[in-house]
């Protein structure tokens, strides 16, 4: 997830500060997400992803990861 968000941010020519302002999320959270923080609120991640027309949704677990 962190790689996707960072790539989308860069594709759109945004700094982390820009993304923070546009998403309404704190700069610290943006940095944590991009650094691969493993636990966070799904609504906050979706708030960020919505800027790129994306959404994080629950999906069945793949058997190959079990």
Task: Please specify the SSE layout and strand pairing.
Blueprint: H1 2-11, H2 16-23, H3 27-34, H4 42-49
Helix pairs in contact: 2-3
What spatial form do the alpha-carbon principal axes imply? globular
Beta content comes to under 5%
Largest sheet: none
Separation, N- and C-terminal Cα atoms: 20 Å
**SS-derived structural category:** mainly alpha
Tally of helical segments: 4
How many beta-strand elements? 0
- Runs with pLDDT <50, length 5+? none
Helix content: 40-55%
- Mean pLDDT equals 91
- Radius of gyration, in Å, reads 12 Å
Order of helices and strands: HHHH
Characteristic terms for this protein:
about 70 residues; mainly alpha
Short structural summary:
The chain is an all-alpha fold. It contains 4 helices and no strands.
What does this 3D model show about the protein?
The chain has helices spanning 2-11, 16-23, 27-34, 42-49. Helices cover 52% and strands 0% of the residues. It is globular, with a radius of gyration of 12 Å. The chain contains 4 helices and no strands. With 66 residues, the chain is mainly alpha-helical.
């Amino acid at each position: 997830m962190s790689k996707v968000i960072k790539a989308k941010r860069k594709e759109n020519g945004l700094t982390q500060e820009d993304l923070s302002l546009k998403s309404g999320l704190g700069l610290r959270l943006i940095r944590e997400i991009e650094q691969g923080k493993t636990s966070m609120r799904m609504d906050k991640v979706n708030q960020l992803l919505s800027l790129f027309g994306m959404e994080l949704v629950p999906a069945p677990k793949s058997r190959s990861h079990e």
